Each structure stands twice: as structure tokens, then as C-alpha cells.
Here is the input.
Amino acid sequence: MDWMSQNLLLMLGIKVTFALIMVGAVMTMAGYSVLAERKVSAWMQGRVGPNRTILPFIEHLPIFGPALRKLGIFQPLADGLKFLFKEEIVPGHVNKFYYYLAPIVALVPALTTMTVLPFGQMHWPDGSVSTLALADLEVGILFVFAVSSLGVYGIALAGWSSNSKYSFLGGIRSSAQMISYELAMGMSLLPVFLWVSVPGSQFSGLSLSAIANSQHDAPWLLLVQPISALIFLIALFAETNRLPFDMPESETDLVGGFHTEYGSFKFGIFFVAEYAHIVIGSAIFTVIFLGGWHFLPFLPDPWPASLLGTFLGVLWFLFKTASLIFFFIWVRWTLPRFRYDQVMSIGWSKLLPLALANLLLYLVIVTAIDRFTPPVP
Amino acid sequence: MAKTVVLERKPLSFSERTYLPQIVTGLKTTFANMFKTKVTLQYPEEKPVIPKNYRGVPTLVKDPNGREKCVSCQLCEFVCPPKAIRITPGAVPEDQFEREHVEKAPQEFEINMLRCIYCGYCQEVCPEEAIFLQDAYTLSGYSRDELVNDKKKLYELGGTLPDRHYKWDKKKQAELEGNNH
Here is the structure.
């Protein structure tokens, strides 16, 4: 009994440590995507972006100091501290309980989805391989869909409890948009999983790690399923409330959208949640369509199956995710926002039928493969 | 009369209706923009080029011989639309020989920069070319009093400008030639 409980405690300790590391990593990436957003937007507009923040000691390093200062590496720190130390203002006309609840409800799903996110493969010294993830669920993608769509509650709640017309419109738009694109998103992934678990394949199920591993030494699913990838990407933009689909925010017509009445750290939480969504969304797109931690399409991993290989794989995965985050930012500073009715029409009358047609096409193809391949002995 | 030609708009092709090629073009444009020269001016370190005739903070100037040009005629004080200028006239001390033939000089000259509207009338009206709106444009202070520029501050800001007339020299010359007035 004593041994059992000790073992349990140890397990718990390890899990909690891993969870904290994971949260730290995702939050750091979210913070730095804010910096990337500011930097990339500046570069695209002929500006230089934040280049003034520096820590007292690092300032005096010979070459590093000025370089880090120029890159604005410490800007996220300053931004975060600013949110922390700002005066906490609660407008008098809000519903206090839901007003405080909303940012938390927005952040929790963003942080929950990362529990099932695989980000690498651990090659143990004894040759066995296990997936690096907090929980490598068999129904990973279903879990992601189920939890990530809860994020809309935070936004809808914020819009509602703020008791202001701008927030309210933002909340309405957000919920309408989420519902519309959730369908196309889920539908676009069905052919992918159908294809991966085609009869005779060694990978089956809805596990995220299996789908990443199926792209080892094989074409990426982006190349096999371009339409699915496109629909998923567009829906991902909509789900993460990024331009050209940033309906809930629409700063030009709705002041600040759902967070109009929010300030200081509560606004900061919304902000972080938004970027955490982007980080997680990019990571999931990488896992499903860009081969996850595996090297280029059609090529086996060039790194050895050892601890070094594990490390390089994780780095490669992070690189792909970061590139995708850059793509998100790039699109934001290129395209104008769609009108609300255009967003709805794209979602319902373009993407959803396209996703359905795509599903039917692959149903026929997979059935044909099933029919005309000799059964595995 | 010009003939109006109505151009028929071609129907959009399928690829155009998906917008995707257009989006790719836009992405290319923004990506190319990332590597262009930046237009940002790193302000406190780099200062913008101030054009000539810029109307900055009004200042009092001295001539190249270091002589005070203002004779406290108070025209600027009268012309100043927001009444920002206040001059206390005074006399030139008798013993200052390099300023002979000028009887008056401001004892105190104050420009309240909280009132000044940078219209430049003072510069325009000044018969002695003693007050100029120069290129100083940064002005800040912690109190209202700090933003009232007194005579000392005004000469500090103004410095010396080239002079075309050398009034004193001319008058001295005239005196030497017996043309005293």
C-alpha cells in the first residue's frame, strides 16, 4: 500500500511537471507570437517594430545586447507586466460574475487542447518508441474538436456580460462564425482519417500521433489531400478568429468587439487565449497535414533513432509550427476582413458543400481501393 | 465631345472566383515588402530634417557681433494674436559703446509658449529682424511657469543669425561722416 501510494505520488509529480513545462512552452510561444505579429506587421509596412526593450544587464553585452534589443526579444515580458500592473477597471453596467468568468472560459479550452497534442517521438535507449504528449489519446482529434469549440463560450459570454452593443455584436458574430466553420472543419478531416486508416494500413483510429507517423517516409497529407488541407486551414483561420475572419473583434466597426469593455489583465487573458489558440491550431495542422515531427515528404527521417533524433524531431516540429504561425500573421497583414454576411455565405454555401463533396469523393476512392485490393492474408 | 466607350467586363474565370490566385498575389506583395528599406525614423536618436522657413519656437537672435538686435519697439507684442508676448522696455546702458545709437533694449522679454500659436506674425512684423521662428519644435515642461520663455532662454534658443544690415556699424559710419541724427 505504501509502495503503491509512493509510486502514485511519483507518477503524479512527473505528470504535473510535464504539464507545467508544456503550459510554459505554449504560453511562451503565445507570448512570442504576439511579438512576431508586431514585428512581421511592422516589416510588411516598412516599419521596424518594437526595438527598445532590454533587461539591465543584457544591455551591456557586446554584440548580443544591441541585437536582442533590436529584435525586441524582451517585449513580451514588458507587455505581460504592463497588463499585470494596469489599473483594474470594471465598468458599472456589466454582469460581474460572468464578466469575470469569461476570460477564464476563453483561456481554459485553449490550454486544454494541448494535453492531447503530440509533439515528438521519444526513442528510448532500449529501442522502444513512444509518443511525446501529455496524453496520447486514441480519440485525439475528437477531443481537440470537442474542447476547442468551447472557446466560443468565453467570447459569447464576454459579449453578453459586458452589456454593451459592441461587445454583444462581437459575441453574436463569434458564435455564428464558430458554428458555421466547425462543421466544415470536422467534415474536412473525415476524408483524411478515412485515407489514413484505409484497409490494409497499419495506422488507424483518430489518434493524432498515428496520423503523424503515417506520414513518415510517405507523402505528407497536404499533398494527398490538398482540398481537405485548404478547407481545414480556412476553417482554422475562422476558428482562431484570425483575419480575414476576425468577426468577433472587427476593430474597425465594433471598437474592440467582444473585449471592448475589458482592460488590464482580463484583456491580457483574452489576448493570450487568442494566441494560444493560434499556436495549438498551427501545431495540429502540422501534425495532421505537414508530417508532424517527421522530415520532408517521401524521405525517411535523416536523424538517428536516439535521444538526439528525438530532440531534432521536436525542433523540426517546432520549426514547422512556427512557420505556420508566420503564415497566419502573413495572411493577417495581407487580406482585408470579410463582411459578416460574406463570412456566413463562405462557410455555409461554399466550404461545407465542398467538404461534403470531398468526403464523397474519397469515400468512393477508398471503397474502390477496398474492393479491388486483394485481402491481406 | 469625347466618346464614351463602355468596356464590357469579362466574367470572372473559375480560378478568379475562388480568389485563391489573387490571395497568393497579395501574399507575394506583402512578403516582398518585408525586405524593403524601412522608413521609420528612430526619433530621439535620429531627428527629421527641418525644412527652411519652418515655424518652430519663436526665439530672439543676436547679430554676428554678439549685439542684441531687439530694440523693444513692442510691435510683436501688439501684433501677437494670442497675446503671448510681454515686453518690459528698458534702456541700453550708457557704457556699452558697441551698442551706441540705440537707446532702447528689452529689460525683460517673455513669450508664453502655452499661448503661442506659432503664427509667425512677430517675425513678420519685427523691423529689426530680431525675432525668428526657428527649427526648435520639441517643447515640454512640468509646470506652466517653465513654459514661459524669458529673455535669457530666448537668446539661448535663438543664437546668432547672419545679419545683412549691421545697423550699428552703419550708424557709426554715418556719425563719422557728420550725418548725426
Observations:
- The CA atoms of residues 138 and 178 of chain B lie 49 Å apart.
- The longest helix of chain B spans residues 20-33.
